[in-house]
Amino acid sequence: MKNPEPANERFTIQYIITVNDKRSIEEHASDITLEQTVEVPKNCIPDKNFEEGIIGIVENIQPNANIPNQYIVSISYRTDITEFSIPQFFNVLFGNISLKNNIKISDIIFADSFFSVFKGPNYGIEGIRKLIGVYGRALTCSALKPMGLSVDGLSKLASSFAIGGIDFIKDDHGISNQKFHPFKERVSRCQDAVEKVNADREHKTLYFPMVSGKFEEIEEQVQYVLKEGIRGILIAPMLVGLDTVRYISDKYNLIIMTHPALTGTYFHDPSHGIQSSVLLGTLFRMLGSDISVFPHAGGRFYLTEKDCLAISNSLRCTNGSWQNAFPCPAGGIHMDKITEINDTYGVDTVLLIGGSLMQHSADISHSTKIFMKKIKSLYNEKLCPPEIPFASSCEIPSVTDQNRNLPLIKFENFTWSGRLTEEYKTNRCFDFSGINRQELIGKSGEKTSFDLRYFEIKPGGYSSLEKHVHEHVIIGVRGEGVLIKGDSSFNIAVHDIAYVSPLEKHQLRNDGEMPFGFFCIVDHKRDKPTVIKDE
Amino acid sequence: MKNPEPANERFTIQYIITVNDKRSIEEHASDITLEQTVEVPKNCIPDKNFEEGIIGIVENIQPNANIPNQYIVSISYRTDITEFSIPQFFNVLFGNISLKNNIKISDIIFADSFFSVFKGPNYGIEGIRKLIGVYGRALTCSALKPMGLSVDGLSKLASSFAIGGIDFIKDDHGISNQKFHPFKERVSRCQDAVEKVNADREHKTLYFPMVSGKFEEIEEQVQYVLKEGIRGILIAPMLVGLDTVRYISDKYNLIIMTHPALTGTYFHDPSHGIQSSVLLGTLFRMLGSDISVFPHAGGRFYLTEKDCLAISNSLRCTNGSWQNAFPCPAGGIHMDKITEINDTYGVDTVLLIGGSLMQHSADISHSTKIFMKKIKSLYNEKLCPPEIPFASSCEIPSVTDQNRNLPLIKFENFTWSGRLTEEYKTNRCFDFSGINRQELIGKSGEKTSFDLRYFEIKPGGYSSLEKHVHEHVIIGVRGEGVLIKGDSSFNIAVHDIAYVSPLEKHQLRNDGEMPFGFFCIVDHKRDKPTVIKDE
To answer: Are A324 and A315 spatial neighbours (Cβ–Cβ below 8 Å)?
Structure first.
């Protein structure tokens, strides 16, 4: 992730502000420009050594024609104050003003650099359709529940949904790593159950396990999921951390289905917070959501149909280079209302039906089949072969190379276990001869501020005559050699230690008849050597 | 972290429920018992293979005498459904019902097992007072700002606050890793400025940098802070993730000061959300907050004095085995109101004064002195020597200048020319035997980012069993020895290389009959080891 912003590039946040005191809307807007940036009164900002343009700029104030004392206010900010990181972006967006009242975020207009830093959904609507080969109809999802059911019970349920022909199965979001259905066992068993059904037919059901592990275990859980050949996960950004979701989506080529747990207070108040279309739509899409679950109007929750359509629009509208994402209405979707729900959301929707399938019949695969039949009757479904093979995935980026953090790098005859002998330099501008290199520490995942290497020079060989700012420490290990250092030269025998100062010209030579080996320790972060032509 | 809960142990959540429809309070309460657990209608719960007691139990319903249609409802849950993890605990607490209305969490009564899993504040009020040696008065804090000021300006400001005698300096929470004040440079420079002032006096000002890095970099930032000799951090749980804070507090022995950014919508509505006393008090203390910043009544934000006192009480009350934490009222605290603010909160408080110090006078150290004088005039301050030494990590005697930058440090019989053989450690808290040290590189004027040392252990001798954030690289030089590393042990022979990861417990032993000598390479700037008592 680069920060490619042009100087003073700005982005804009739109707020709905309700004025309920004697101050003017201009004063309220001006407060926000300070509160979300410098957080001091204007007269405390020093003249010198202070970056221009840090404070927000009020770009526009429009009264809301329908609600007295309510205004729509646009404020622009320099993009680089967000650090182009999710934590600081949310801080600028709503950090301190969350602690005020009567301010509601209603839109965000991003600048170009956000789209190059935050890549949005990995798959999006088109990518997911290609992956499973289903076009022309709404997609469907159901949930494995209830919490407390045995792994056996959950995997049987997964099998039933798959037999019924559902497109996606997700864990209930409360099914995490409890001891009565531990994460790994549950994930493997449910995926096995689904794969078994998939094996016999072209239509593939995908299983999205809930990933809600602790900070220190969540990445391992994601890798476990990938190793099981699973293509997507369910994840709740407010439970595991907003940037955790961005990180996982960035690093792993997964379908990300987001869950709205713990988000409700951001939008339940019409006059304060972040609109549901912005949080569950725009922002979750920014984090990488391919499918955003939200409570459907008319179910157990309070969002209105207008809210739900606004969320859907934020997910599906054109927004920079981000792929369009699926809205996923959920929470009290009933079999007998499928037609109207479809009318509301249209074809590019994932319909999540949970308890209703269970209530419809004790035979879950049967009620799933009826549900799927209803859905298909509303559309002209077109099927293609799934684009991507569904074998277990081997493209997992390796966090742990096999040789990383080996407990012991064993010495044997001047080679070290798990370490390769490499060319001394690949750049042929340098003059050298008969020398090779082993990277021992610093290139295999260690976080040291130094690198340890072993060099060996054949009889008659030499390293390049060079200089650089970084220092060298040399320790004799094998045989004897010569260090040219400035205008002097020194013999280096086993265990002798030499130090080369910044920009001191130096070279190592083997004038003897046996190999000359030495350790060389350098700063991990270092400048490139400059070659010195023979004088 | 173990899960030591007895079978079917339960904990209780208290809700304030406002009924605004025709259903009874009993129906509302019953809905919550399902919504937060199994998330299906009761008749969908299978008989077989289902864990007993998963569904919440309504323990008590009391009408609120003062508000019609409002009830105080207690519901108990099996503790193990929370997985004893922060993400799933918050899910059970308020995941789905956040998406409803008229439900406010007003209390949590934990069960024993929570206190053994979640250890709460590392230092607490007593620990922080011992650390800095200040008793009998409220503690004080100010903030480095504004965002956009140069690193030079910020470090000068830090110096001024320290000269003025403030107890703590925190970064403004919007100062993160922006290119105009990059994290590492800013942290090092501000800490240097504070250390310089501290060096000349017994009272020590502590600097708490804001840590808000991305998922993949936040732990490195914490380690950087530790290596700089810094004792605490400022962190915003909702920005970086709730469990990220728990993780950092658990793993690193830091003072955790929490910031309330992005929390406001949880408590701004009196009838829906999580009370501020529960979120900023109880729950942030559960995550490890030693000092919880919250908006003071009468400042720029809307909390009432009653809210602020309830937060303070949740932080300071007895709650299982958790240490008491400091309330830290902030946001519009003015010099001229210090007396009444002190009366409100009492002695065990950290008063955060920001802009007001800047507005009071252009000479910040002068206005800080006046502020400190006012505070001290209200109390009988008692000072003790700070408990923990504040020297930077260089108690190591330095080699005489004559030996600096010797061109060659000649090896002879396991000593090196110009280098002294010294004691292994001067601190007798550590258990070690028969070991000495030669500082070869890093203490004689070299500017390397690493130090190279030679240690030699006599037969039967051993180094201390310890751990630290900085890594070790060990190279066998003489004889053979044993490296204890985590739960394993390895033989180290000549030229073998071993790597010790951050916080891995380790020890070197010589069980043989000949001397065992090894090089040890470490980062030049590094944290102090923690001794591990024999288990």
So the answer is: yes
Confidence at residue A246, expressed as pLDDT on a 0 to 100 scale: 98
What's the mean pLDDT when you consider all of chain B?
Answer: 90
Task: Report how far apart, in Å, the C-alpha atoms of B176 and of each of A244, B52, B227, B235 are.
Answer: 18, 48, 18, 11
B449 part of contact set with chain A, CB < 8 Å: yes
Q: Are B233 and B190 in contact (CB under 8 A)?
A: no
Of A239, A222, A219, A218, nearest in space to A230 by CA: A222
Return the structure tokens found at A422: 């490499």
Chain B residues touching residue A293 (CB < 8 angstroms): none
Give me the count of residues in chain B.
535
Report the chain A residue with the minimal C-alpha distance to residue B485.
A407
Q: Are the C-beta atoms of residues A364 and A358 closer than 8 Å to each other?
A: yes
- Residue numbers of A between 367 and 396 with CB closer than 8 Å to B: none
Residues 6+ apart with CB under 8 A from A271: A16, A18, A70, A101, A102, A104
Which of B524, B529, B527, B528 is closest to B445 using CA atoms?
A: B524
Cβ-defined contacts of A485-492 (< 8 Å, 24+): A485/B407, A486/B407, A488/B407, A490/B407, A490/B408, A492/A516, A492/A518, A492/B408
Question: Considering only CB atoms, which chain A residues are within 8 Å of B331?
Answer: 99
For chains A and B, CB pairs below 8 A equal: 412
Inter-helix orientation angle A86-94/A242-251, to 10°: 140
Cβ-contact A308, A293 below 8 angstroms? no
The whole-angstrom separation of Cα A444 and Cα B64 is 63
Residue A273 three-state SS: strand
SS (H, E, C) A499-528: EECCCCCEEEECCCCCCEEEEEEEECCCCC
The shortest C-alpha distance from A358 to chain B (Å) reads 6
One DSSP character per residue, B378-403 reads: TS--EE---SS----S--SPPPPGGG
Which string of DSSP letters, residue by residue, matches B309-364? HHHHHHHHS-BTTBPP-EEEEESS--GGGHHHHHHHH-SS-EEE--HHHHHH-S-H
Q: Using alpha carbons, select from A211, A276, A36 the residue that is nearest to residue B243.
A: A211
With 0.95 as the threshold, say if the pTM is over it: no
Query: b/e for B341-352, b at 16 or more Cβ within 10 A?
Result: bbebbeebbbbb
Q: Residue A444 pLDDT more than 70?
A: yes
For A140-175, the pLDDT digits (tens) are 999 999 999 999 999 999 999 999 999 999 999 999
pLDDT confidence tier of residue B198, bands split at 50, 70 and 90? very high
Coil, strand or helix at A492: strand
Distance, in Å, from the CA atom of B35 to the CA atom of B403, rounded to the nearest integer, reads 73
Tens digits of per-residue pLDDT, A60-119?
A: 999 999 999 999 999 999 999 999 999 999 999 999 999 999 999 999 999 999 999 999
Q: Is residue B239 scored above 70 in pLDDT?
A: yes
B149 touches chain A (CB under 8 A): yes
Instruction: Name chain A contacts of B100, Cβ cutoff 8 Å.
Output: 264, 300-302
Distance in angstroms between the alpha carbons of the first and the last residue of chain A = 44
Helix, strand, coil percentages in chain B from 3-state DSSP, rounded to 5: 30, 25, 45
Residue B202 C-alpha, separation from nearest chain A C-alpha, in angstroms: 31
What is the set of domains in chain A, with CATH numbers?
A: 10-117 (3.30.70.150), 124-383 (3.20.20.110), 411-531 (2.60.120.10)
Share of residues in chain B with pLDDT > 70 (%): 93
H or E element in which residue B70 lies: strand B70-78
Alpha-carbon radius of gyration of chain B: 27
pLDDT in tens, A514-528: 999 999 999 877 777
Query: Which is nearest to A263 in space by CA: A39, A25, A98?
Result: A98
CB contact under 8 A, A99 and B358: no
* 3-state SS class at B6: coil
